[in-house]
Amino acid sequence: MNAVFENTKKIVLGIDTGGTYTDAVACDGQSHKIYAEAKSLTTRQDLSVGISNALSQLPGEYLRQASLVSLSTTLATNACVENKGCRALLILFGMDEASARRLGSEFGGFDTDDIWCIETDTHMDGTIGKMPDWEEFGRIIQKRYAGYEAFALVEIYAKQTGACLEKKARETIAAVLSRPTVCGHELFSEINVLKRGANAMLNARLVPLIDRFLKAVDVSLKELGVQAPVMIVRSDGTLMSREFAVTHPIETLLCGPVASVIGAEKLTGCDTAMIVDVGGTTSDVALLRKKSPVRVEEGVHIGGWTTFIKGLFVDTFGLGGDTGVRYREKKLFLDTKRLIPICILASRYPEITEELRKIAEGQSTHTRFIHEYLVLQHPPVKPEEYSEEEQRICRLLKERPYALLDVSKKLDLSLYRIDTERLERDGIILRSGLTPTDIMHLKGDFDVFCKEASFFAASYVAKNLYMNVERLCDLVYDRVKYRLFDNLARVLIEREYPGFAEMDREVLDLLLEKQWKEFCEKKELSGFFSVNISSRMAIVGLGGPAAIFVPDAAHALGAEVMIPEHAQVANALGAALGHVAYVITVTVDAVYSEEASYLAVTSSGERKPFEKDQTEEAIGYAKKRAEVLAIQEAKMRGISYIPHIEWKQNWKNYPGTEMLNQITVQAAVQERLF
């Protein structure tokens, strides 16, 4: 922890909670100078412990003077990459089962069994031919779906109906169950109902996760006497209030990586660069062009989910200090699955070290990872939904973590019968095993936790690979660096040649493997020709392991490397530098039918008709409605005053005609907090 005391009343506290570490900074809200920084392990069982541990390392004077607390987190990012999250039910009004089945494969990584379709015979003009039986709806929710932790509600043609079915369904659910319930019309206005359904489902799955995070922050701030308002970074780099984040957690999808980009630009002053943040669970790649982060317009893609969320370009892949180092058929591989580094677990449970020694020295090779430990995060909320075997495993792990080998012995179960996949997917248990963090301890590049436990775990993995520990360590370093190099090259190619992703990946793999081998062996390019991927941009490395792994990956691409001061807390700094910006859109739609032609002003959850010759009146109402919504949004985002609004208006006719199609009225707000 570094600190320099200075008198200021514009202190901002930045907090970033990642999968492995929680970082905190105190900086000046105007000059952005860092006064103090700190780092602590993230405590998944109780996030407030890790947050308090980080904040308590900052001088108390800065905590008391703080004017704002700004947050970022990779919790939502990691949940998507690992396909985790709470169990949520998506209720689709007006959709058929066949269309709904396309949801999971096309727009999101979820089970289509978690979808309930209700026929409503809704027409494009907003008329509903078959209204649901709401009493029966409530009974079914209570009887059949009470086991779900959250609900997502989406109806077809919600703009035309005023989302009346979503609103009534939420009201009905609230009367029978106390569960977070998300309405699609409050999140997105896009037409594609399938994509809206997938996005609403993802949002519902993330609600309990982000709610727990924000409650943990509240506990820590109260404990340490911090009384400043709390904001959280969105995927576009702007800020939102904690109240807004609780109902819109999908907006936090890339807030951790985005905060890193903002922090990196401030730390380096780079005009154009590739930003690489190597974390615990994932690595994130973003791009700077002319000092501004590159943005995506089509929506963020992450972990199999296709979203409406507009944000900065961030490419996330499973690689970090907690990546599982495993073996299969006598070959080493880096799993995308996150493991608790065994050195960290052994620091908490010292008896594990001796148990690992016995496994490493006494056990023969095995196809199962018998050296890995199962760690209970929390007991199942509804134990009856799990098998007797799964419940027995959880009861055993209440005592302490046990190696897979010991679980087998204590519960008298065959190693091949133990199935913890669902418990791991639901976040009830985590595994601990050999990771790059452990290898860093053995290589002497990191020395904080139990190196001896890392050695015994590495010894057992090396035994299964028929090599010594030294060779294993070198091989793991090489694989981590190559995976970084491979993904950086992929990002460069896909940005420059978007269609390349559809080509044969095997060809690219062969070229990259050859380039990496020649770089590692310091060979001149061989053969009659070569295809070398290179970067004209500097590559900026962030995160704890960046200084170890990023330079070689960057040099193999012929790029300049920068590891800035404060690189380990760039994300927390970026969180502290955000601002508030948003756009409210209200449309005036021209509706033509055989019965009548009229204008309809459409906004979030409201549709108001006007006569076809009342264009000015409709536009006037649209502006008033946009202003009301902009002020409401400002309050939701933590702005207590009436913000300045920039107005935009756009007319669109049907192609080739003078017939009005739509008038768009937009209210844009951008406010800096200091």
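The above is record 1. Record 2 follows with the same two-line structure.
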Amino acid sequence: MNYDDSIFVEETSQQRTAKLKRAIGAYLRRWPYFVLSILFFLFMSWLYLRYQTAIYQSSAKVLVKDTRRATGTDLILSDIAVTNTSSGIDNEIALITSYRIMENVVRKLDLSISYFRKGKILEVEVFKDEAPFLISVENFISDHDRRPFQMIARMHQGRIDITLPDGQVVQAGINKQFRYGDNLIKILPNPARPAIDYANAVDELSVNVNNLFNTTSRLQSNVNVGLENNFATVLGISHTSPNPLKSRKILETVIESYNEDEMYDRTIEFEKTGEFIDHRINIINEELGDVEGSKESFQVSRDIARLDLEVTSAIGTKTSLEGRLLDVDTQLSLLNSYRNYISSKSMSDILPQDISNASGAINESVSRYNSLVIQRNDLLAAGATEMHPDAENLARNIREFRTNLLQNVDKQLQSMQAMRGNLSGELGRVSAFKRQAPRMDRITRDIERQQQIKENLYLLLLQKREEAAISLAITQPKAKLIDPPKSNYTPISPKKFNYYVGAFSLGLLLPLAFIYTRELLKDKIETREDLEEFIKGKPLVAEIPRVDSVHEHHVVGSDLSMISEAFRIMRTNLDFVLSSIKTDGAKVILITSSIKGEGKTFVAMNYAHILGQLKEKKSIIVGADIRNPQLHRFDREKKSIEGLTEYLYHDDVDYRDYVRLSNSDGKTHILFSGRIPPNPTELLMSDKFDRLIAQLRKDYDYVVIDSAPLVLVSDTYHISNEADVTIFVTRSEITPKSVLRIPLEAAEIGRIKNIVFALNDISSSHSGYAYGYKYNYGYGYGYGTKNRKRSLLSRLRTFGR
């Protein structure tokens, strides 16, 4: 008895398409909930944004004229050495956003005191230029250590009442001061609003007083500076604040403070430079006077007036010899340096040419030596080791060439030293004529040289002092304003579009997830397809639409309502099933269900009445659910009437004595259940019940038996043999799928004959026939629950199942 064999059968494309349509339909038919969810979250987003303070951004552009800072040292050394003092644009950005600059901005604008005006919903920040009055707070300890506090200022009737944090109210006024803790508070008129009539003005402000450190740190985090592009010194400066005017003022003050800081630094540098130059000028002036005095003393002591005319010829010869001697000394110095350089270098180093030009042979040897070094280096670079034969051979040749080169240099040194000796001897001979003249000339030249150096240095310092004074006089701001501060009045926070998109997405996804989870965990029969999937080919003879609570005990008649048409379709389908069953007399139809509340009595009563509408046909309904009689609900006047129980219990009675006509149509016969007996199972298993059915087959054309639920009690199994067809009633959104195994297994083993199924209480969204559209009957009834009309409440209840 395995009813899941079909799961191994591959689904057809039509089946897959049908499943896909059902899956999509589960979402589409609940479109109102998507709309409600989206509208709800959009409303919540709107409500949230309504209570959020809008943040605006203001921005400005400045051109940093030169990223190299010309200091006083640069000014002095500009003609002497090349210096690199570029600080870089990154340093300028760091300087603009530094704590020192931000603290200066806070002090200038007094940002540690904030003003707020209460609105209908939010408190709106008011910049100091917009406030009717200003508040000055001086701390006896330190502005950095001041404890933040808040106070309320109310201006009316020419005075200002200040409500302090401790609840104390101080009556103050313009230019009046009072003390609160370590703070001295003073009310000042606002110079930006001179036209205010304080005697008649009425206003209320919330004033927040913060310490300097917190305010400066918060300002640092709100000011952003960055390059506009990577190849320019144009900086973009921005600030975010709820008050655009405040942001623009802050940006203006940031740029102003940066330029002032630069100007101050340059002024200090130039002042220090001027002091240094003046000090050096005084020293050099004294030294220059000492040199000129030494020259005068020397000429007086030697009785010399025009030494140059007296020793012109001797001096000329001496000068020529000195020049040659100087050249020789220079070459000797270069050769000695060159020899030391050669000796200090390794075998892999290339030697420079002899710049003394003392001998062409040395340079030729150097060229050959370098050629051998290059060959050896190339050999080692190619992967050879120093033990390689070629490398050893080249090393040996290099050492020999180095020895020869040093010998050539030594020979050249000896030659130059000999030449120097000759020149010295000749100079001594020339100097013998006027031995004292060179000494005096040297002394004179030394004095004149010192004098010339001092004079040149004195003139240079005078020039630099004038340049420093001119530079200080024409110093301009370093940051040139390109675009003045302007505000973007589209808030950067909160971004309404992002919130609304998020709300729309959440409103869409939440019902989607809920429906998906509900469909995934659904264990109730809802649609015709759900039922057909489990009954495995058994006939489905009826889809009974939902009726409202007013009509839940209604009995169909000859009208053309949707519910009547549904039972007529059921009658037609069952006639087709019954036509294939050969019986003597009336057709006996047993109607049962799985559990209580699935509407089997409703189906049985209405089916019996639909059968009663057939001409020349008689039908009767038997209330065989004697444990829980329900037939009397359709006829309140006959609630206590005797019926099947009394007939089975008493002997020698005729069933006709207990049969009543229906008040609905006056044609259908009803055998009510009667009183609830203590032994219902034994009564239904009696031969008298079998004889009753046999007699009813003779007297009627259709016998409808309303039996007890199949899963709860065994009564139905005892009377099922008397039935030609068993109608198993299921109810949409009520009947568990798992209980369908019970009637199917019972039918397979023969405990129930010719079982067919009916789906009761199906809503318009689940109906496969679309009654309300096809027949235009106003589909919208609901059976078995209260208020089943398609109201919002009923939709929410249905959606929550």
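The mean pLDDT is 81.
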